[in-house]
Structure formats: C-alpha cells, structure tokens
Amino acid sequence: MPGSTTLVSRRNSRRYAADAGLLFVAAAFVLPLAWVLLSSVDPKADLLVKVPDGVTLDNFDAVLKPDITFTPLLNSLILCGGATLLTVVCAALAAYPLSRFRSRLNRPFLLTILFATSLPITAIMVPVYALFVQVDLIDTMQGTIFFFAASQLPFAIWLMKNFMDGVPKELEEAAWTDGASSFQSLLRIVLPLMGPGVAVVTVFSFVMMWGNFFVPFMLLLTPDQMPASVSINDFFGNRGTVVYGQLAAFSIIYSTPVVLLYVLVARRLGGGFALGGAVKG
Amino acid sequence: MTSAPPAGPGVVKTAPGPTAPPSTPGGRRDVRRVLTRALPLSPAVVLLLLFLAGPIAYCVYIAFTDLQLTGQAESSFIGFDNFRAAFKDDAFLNAVWLTLVFTVLSSLIGQNTLGLSLAVLMQRASKPVRTVTGGIVIAAWVLPEVVAGFLLYAFFRREGTLNAVLDWLHLPSQNWLFTLPILAVSFANVWRGTAFSMLVYSAALNEIPKEITEAAEVDGAGGWRRMWHITLPMIRRSIGTNLMLNTLQTLSVFGLIWVMTRGGPGNRSQTLPLFMYEQAFQKSMIGYGTAVALLLLVVGSLFSLVYMRLLRTEV
Which domain of life is it from (chain B) (predicted)? Predict the structure, then answer.
C-alpha cells in the first residue's frame, strides 16, 4: 500500500502539531496557577510568578489560625455539608417516583425542573435578600442552607433521575414480591446500585456551593458566620496592605477539598467525566 | 397549575404502578398509590416552592414597586416606572452593553471556540500532553470562583505576570485592569470556564464513529474540510447545548468580576449582575435593582427555553 506510509507520517506530523498547540495553551493556563503555588511558599511574595529565593511555610503558619482559616472553613463545611445533605436526600426521594412510576405529571414536572436548572440564580439574589429580611431568615445559617439546597435541587433531581433510570427495574420487582415497600427498595436496592451516581450528585453539589461567593455574601452579615468564599476578601482592604503570600496560602487551603473531591469522583468514573455527558441529557 | 397534556388514549387512566396489589378495593389502592408517588416528591417541591419559586414571584412583584433599603416603612406600586427609568439610564445601558461584550467575548467566542479546539487537538495529541493540558485546564475550572478571581487579578495587575511576559517578549505592557477591564475579566472567564466546553466536546467527539472520519481521510478530505463537513454537523447538538449553558453561566457571573475589578474603574466592567447589586445595595434602591434582576431573569428564561427545545426529545 503506497498511500499508507504517507498517511502514517501525516498523522505523526499532525500529532506533533497537536501536541505543540496543547502545550502552548497549557503554558498560558498554568501561569496563574503557578503564581498561587509559588507565592504560598515565597517569603517575599508579590503579584509576579517567580521562583522564590527560599522556601518557607511561614505563610501557612500565619493563616492557620482560628479567625483566619478554621472558623471560615468550619462555616463553609456547615453550610455546604448541610445544604448538600438536604439536596441529595430531597433529590433522591424526588427522583424515585419520577424514574419508577409513569404519571402524566412527570413530564410537566421534569420540564419545569429542566427549565429551572438553567435559570441565572444570580438574578434573584436581590429579591431573595429582600424576602429573607421580611421573614427573618437573613443572616442565619439555616436560611442560607435552605436557599443553597433549593438552588441546587433542580440540577440534582435531573442528574439523579438520569442515573436512577439506569438501574434495572427487575431487581426491585423481586424485592416487592418479597414484601419490601418502595422506600425500602429505594434505600436498599436502587441507591446502592447507583452509588457512583449518588457520589457524583453529592460531590457536584458540594463543590458548587463551596465555591459560591454571591449567595453567602448576600445572605450572611455577621463576620463569624462567613464561609471561606467570602472571608477570603478580608485579605484585601481591612488589613491594610495585602500580604500576597498569605492570600496564596489561604487560597490553597481553601481550594484543596474541592480539588481532592473532584479527583476522587473523576477517577472513580474512569477518568471520563459524567457531568459533561449528563448535562447533555 | 399544570394542565394535562393533549388527550391521548392512555391519558385519563394512568398506568398501574408496580406497587398496586392486584385485588384491593379501588379507593384505597388509589390513595396509597398517590401517597407513594407524591410523598417522596414533597420535600423537594416544598423547598423549591418556598426558596426558588417564592423569590422569583417576589422578584416579579417588587420590580414594580419603589422599595428601598432604608428608612421607608412601606413601598408603593409604581408600575413600569423602574423599567422606563432603566432604559433611560446610561449606566444601565452601559451594563447591558458590557454584559453583551462579556458574553460574546468570553462565552460564545472564547470558551466555546477554545474548548472545541482543545477537544479536537486532544483527539490527535499524544497521551502525556493530553493528560497534562487537560489537568491544568480542569484545575482552573475546579477552583472556587473567588480564588480564580484572585489568581487572575494577580495575573493582570500592572506589576503582574502578564506584563512581565510581555516585557520579556519586548511587547508593550499596560495596566490591563485599568485600560481594558472588560477584556481582562472576559479572559478570566475564558480561563475559568473553558474546561466545561472542552469536556462536553471531548465527549461528543468520542461518539463520532472512527470509520466515518477515516473514510473521509482516505478519500483525501483535508483537516478543515473534515471538520466543516463531517465533525461539526455531527456534534451540532452538543454545540447548541454547550453554547446555551455557557451563555447562561456567563450571564450570571458575579464573584469573578467583583474580585478582579468591582465593576470598575468607574463602571467600565460593570455587567448587569454588578449593576443590579450596586443599585439595590450601594444605592439602596431594591425596587430598581430587582427590575434589572427581572430583566436578567427574563433573558435567562428565554435562553433556558431554547435549551429545553434542544433537549426536548429526551424528556
């Protein structure tokens, strides 16, 4: 086959071109990331990416204090953990009848949910604030948790229902014959079988809330209740000049949980990413 | 609230659920069935009604009032005045324009095109390069919004990394956050959001059967022609949904811009969410701010409806 060698060499040269293109983009994308990594251990960090003269952990020492790091992280954990728990439980319960029973309400309900998944939540923060003032939920953890959960629910139900559809009904029918109730079969059979799906919904909800700035920024006022996404702002302004090394160190501490969670889920799903596919329908 | 879909043969009588025991009296069975179905839905429905539908309804209401933050016991209904005022307000029109620029630059052009290019290149690249690049781009996406904001603030500042790189290349440097703030925040949004498009397009490209592209290649179709005539038409649904989701996400970006520029200098990077915030809280005009929010919500709803149409076969 005379054509095959040129085809192979063409493919090789195309691969080099593709590699070069990707590496160029990677270099551009890595610069801001390199800044945070290098500055966090740089005793004289500023805004520039540079190899530090010496490596120090002083920046981490300086921020690992109750008022700077531990309280905000604990607040984040309470807020996001509570809201995630609420989201996942409500979504699992709601997805069950939607996935298992046919009803003429399913379609309108699912369409409403799908519509709600893509509403810009940012837009309703001002009325939510006004409403929360009226009903005295402003500046409360529980109010923020409820709103977080509600804002994440449409997408969580949608995802959960799609994952649940993948669990065959036959296994459940056997359990029903043995006298199990729907709730028991959801808990004992369906949810364990869709473990990775539940993990994706949980991690995704948690990561979205952990990184969310606007919701707690609007709904919480007391500094003691602020999660890390808002308290990170204190590195600017209030403390006079910005200590960039400490800002970088705090950024790393605050980002680590979500990065780890992402890696955990991405690996469990075989390196592929279920959300990309799930979002498509 | 919900009306029944157009009558078909099976509409009136719903299919019997698997829980229904075959021979209990009709009434009790129905009650049980309704309970098994409605009860699990109720916590979610209650949450959604109270904390999502409620605020949206409230949003529609206060957008037509002159509600203010301080010193005013009650507000009065002022009809469309907030909206009329908005369209006469230069600051509002400026925010609309900047939102448009921000969305077109960062979402339609930036995230979408770069994400597709990365996905296409990844199909051909060697595995280590693919892994490294993918990891870096995804890391930018996984980081919390505010952290991303700080990283790019550091990148674009006068004494930051970008200018250092430009100096090194003997290119003119400038104070990006001051001279071209909207461009800087758009690039920030590209940096942060491209991973999503990349993942969506990688998944879509992997679904294209290899035989099709290989056949075209043997027939002598060059890279661009294969892309234009085969690949793009085959992934057009993914392009549609991706554009839609990117746009919606970009419309509601607040934290990233807030951290980088606070909408400034002046109002030169003040997109609609930041304008809304400023009117409602810094100027205490909740009614006016909410009217702007309602407009944003309406635009978002329109996009959302288009998105649903793209997915309509799958519900």
Answer: Bacteria
Task: Give B82-126 pLDDT, tens digit per residue.
Answer: 888 888 888 899 999 999 999 999 999 999 999 999 999 998 889
Query: Within 10 A of A58 (CB to CB), how many other CB atoms are there?
Result: 13
Q: Which two tokens stand for residue A174?
A: 């056997």
Low-confidence stretches of chain A (pLDDT beneath 70): 1-5, 7, 237-241, 267-281
- Using the beta-carbon criterion (under 8 Å), do A151 and B51 form an inter-chain contact? yes
How wide is the angle at C-alpha A22 spanned by C-alphas A17 and A25, nearest 5°?
130
Alpha carbon B26 to its chain centroid, in Å, reads 48
Rounded Cα distance between B13 and B10, Å, is 6
Give chain A positions within 8 Å (CB) of B144: 210-211, 213, 228-229, 254-255, 258
Tell which residue, A33, A141, A145, A157, has the closest CA to residue A92: A157
> Residue B119's Cα: distance from chain center in Å?
20
The CB density around residue B262, as the number of other CB atoms within 10 Å, is 15
Structure tokens at A133: 């003032």
- Indicate the DSSP class of residue B2: P
* Cβ atoms within 10 Å of A161's Cβ, excluding its own: 22
CA distance to partner chain B, nearest, from residue A75 (Å): 16
Residue B234: list chain A partners with CB under 8 A: none
Interface check B98 vs A, CB under 8 A? no
Half-sphere exposure of A218 (CA within 13 A, CB side): 31
Point out the residue among B5, B142, B308 whose CB comes nearest to the CB of A258.
B142
Best mutation target among A126, A164, A189 (most B Cβ atoms within 10 Å) is: A126
Q: What is the mean pLDDT of chain A?
A: 85
Residue B314 has pLDDT above 60, yes or no: no
Query: Which candidate, B152, B308, B182, places its Cα nearest to that of B245?
Result: B308
H-helix or E-strand containing B93?
A: helix B90-102
Contact by Cβ (8 Å): B296, B251: yes
Distance, CA of A132 to CA of A139 (rounded, Å): 9
Dihedral through CA B159, CA B160, CA B161, CA B166, nearest 10? Answer: -50
Q: What tokens appear for B166 in the block?
A: 């430009």
Residues 6+ apart with CB under 8 A from A63: A69, A246, A249, A250, A253
pLDDT category of residue B14 using cuts at 50, 70 and 90:
very low
A268: contact with B, CB 8 A cutoff: no
More confident: A272 or B183: B183
Contact indicator for A36, A251 with CB cutoff of 8 Å: yes
Predicted model pTM: 0.86
Task: Return the bridge partners of B77, or none.
Answer: B65
Q: Considering only residues 210 to 249 of chain B, which have any Cβ-Cβ distance to chain A shorter than 8 Å?
A: 217-218, 223, 237-238, 241, 244-245, 248
